[in-house]
Design a protein that fits this description.
Layout: H1 4-8, H2 12-22, H3 33-52, H4 54-58, H5 66-72, H6 81-90, E1 100-102, H7 110-116, H8 122-133, E2 140-145, E3 158-163, H9 170-176, E4 185-189, E5 206-212, H10 216-223, E6 231-236, H11 248-251, H12 261-270, E7 279-283, H13 291-308, E8 315-319, H14 347-351, E9 358-364, H15 369-380, E10 390-395, H16 397-411, H17 425-444, E11 448-450, H18 463-471
Parallel strand pairs: 1-2, 2-3, 3-4, 4-5, 5-6, 6-7, 7-8, 8-9, 9-10, 10-11
Helix pairs in contact: 6-8, 10-12, 15-17, 16-17
Length: 500
């Protein structure tokens, strides 16, 4: 048996042959997803072998040729789309081996996807449908669907449907998976309101709606009765007002209001899922400007608190606009005389289900920090939430700017203090201290806390929108108290892209 020294002196070509012998015959570009998965697994096996086998671990990393690493790590690319479909249609051995189909690997960029991958293009649609119908073992699928198709997918358990072009109604996606009786996980991206009732498969346990804009009745029509639902995620695609841009859709009185958290919970009640949901995420970033909208939001809080306490939630991820906004403080007393939640330090204590294990709150405003601190003290005193393991907080763009401002004063004693219409330097320094105390109190309570001075990025691939969100967070000593903008920034983005 070779000793460590002989292995160390082994020529690199011999080491390469040993590694190649462990790898399958398939190399990129792969003809099928099964080939790609097999190659990825084989490389992982070699990596694990190097970690567990002392002899191989003794061989310096540079003895393993970089060509192998480049070939099998991070470069698991497929054949071109037409070549792949042609292979499935012409190779009878490839069809039964495929258990997944993912059109997103060919999504070079958005415009290419719209122009080349749209299933409404007759020839391409027929090719895709023919290929899918020939793969009876499919368990997972990611597809751009824009056509009136309902393929038979008897073994499918997971589906992601990206709606493009003129076919963004939720009914298209529901129809596409209507013949998948064993579907458990459904994700839809880019959906819009639809008045047509949908018939989803009955076994679905997880639904994620991303980059979506729905109103109450369209969500109700989409979900129907969902007795098996355990996870529900809704991420709105409308955030122009949040980014400080005009959004005619949200201010037009003839357009129905966007969803509130109370709307989503009422739909889950009608679906028979409220007392079964274990994971709930709602990400709606909106600025409430009209009094009628603020009053509607505030009036919903009481019902939201009652319904949330009935849910067996283990994971809860929300944006703060769903729970409280500063404008509530300026409203006259509500019709029923209830105290406004913003003035109640027990807001989160009365809202969060007792069985919660993970809680995330994004877009946190500075005015809401005392309420979060009160929650931390409540847990620290062992008064509740014994199962809570982790809290994840993300500040709003305005709070990020104020926190950076406060840090600027802490790091530079010569930075002048002053005031502006937006804030004061003393207030920003105080916010830094509040954040520090919140982190300390959760840690003392034995709860893992994550509270970076960073916003939670919008759930979008739109680089303009993401950059605009970052620009709203900007603070530096040069702009300091100047609300008009930073002189060091080259230019402001005035594109106003309608894709937000």
């Amino acid at each position: 048996m070779a000793n460590k020294k002989s292995l160390h002196n082994m020529p690199s070509l011999v080491v390469e042959e040993i590694c190649l012998a462990l790898l399958p015959k398939y190399r990129p570009p792969y003809k099928t997803f099964a080939d790609r998965d097999e190659a990825k697994k084989a490389f992982e096996d070699i990596h694990n072998l190097a970690l567990t086998c002392r002899a191989l671990d003794y061989i310096p990393l540079y003895h393993v040729p970089s060509t192998i690493l480049r070939r099998y790590r991070g470069q698991h690319h497929m054949l071109g789309f037409l070549d792949y479909v042609n292979g499935i249609l012409t190779d009878p051995e490839a069809e039964p081996r495929e258990t997944m189909f993912d059109m997103s690997v060919w999504n070079v960029n958005d415009s290419w996807a719209r122009n080349t991958l749209r299933l409404s293009t007759l020839g391409r649609e027929l090719l895709v449908e023919d290929a899918i119908e020939r793969m009876p073992q499919l368990k997972s699928i990611t597809i751009y669907t824009t056509g009136d198709r309902a393929p038979t997918l008897p073994r499918l358990t997971q589906a992601k449907i990206i709606l493009l072009g003129d076919y963004k109604k939720m009914g298209w996606s529901a129809k596409y998976v209507s013949n998948a009786p064993n579907l458990e996980v459904l994700e839809i991206e880019g959906g819009q309101s639809d008045c047509v009732p949908c018939l989803l498969p009955p076994k679905i346990r997880s639904i994620t709606l991303s980059s979506t804009w729905l109103i109450h009745y369209s969500l109700r029509n989409f979900l129907g009765v969902r007795n098996e639902l355990r996870e529900f995620v809704y991420r709105s695609a409308r955030y122009k007002s949040y980014l400080g841009l005009e959004d005619n859709l949200l201010t037009n009185r003839f357009i129905p209001n966007v969803l509130l958290l109370s709307d989503i919970l009422s739909v889950l009640i009608q679906a028979g899922s409220l007392r079964k949901i274990e994971t709930l995420e709602v990400d709606i970033r909106r600025v409430y400007e009209e009094e009628r909208d603020v009053r509607q939001l505030c009036n919903s809080f009481h019902f939201v608190n009652l319904w949330m306490k009935q849910m067996p939630l283990k994971t809860l991820r929300l944006t703060q606009q769903l729970l409280w906004i500063a404008t509530c403080d300026h409203l006259p007393a509500l019709e029923n005389g209830r105290t406004l939640p913003s003035r109640n330090p027990d807001k989160l204590i009365n809202f969060i289900p007792e069985c919660i294990e993970y809680f995330q709150l994004a877009d946190v405003a500075g005015e809401f920090l005392p309420c979060i601190l009160h929650l931390a003290d409540h847990i620290r005193a062992r008064k509740g939430f014994a199962n809570l393991i982790k809290v994840h907080l993300r500040p709003s763009p305005l709070l990020v700017r104020k926190l950076l401002h406060g840090l600027g004063h802490e790091s530079d004693a010569n930075l002048m203090y002053g005031e502006s219409e937006e804030t004061s330097c003393e207030a920003c320094v105080d916010l830094i201290e509040q954040r520090r105390v919140i982190v300390e109190r959760f840690e003392e309570a034995g709860v893992e806390i994550e509270f970076p001075i960073e916003v939670l990025p919008l759930h979008t691939n739109d680089r303009v929108a993401l950059q605009r969100q970052l620009d709203l967070c900007h603070w530096c000593p040069e702009c300091h108290m100047d609300d008009s903008g930073c002189p060091l920034q080259d230019s402001e983005d005035d594109s106003g892209d309608d894709s937000y």
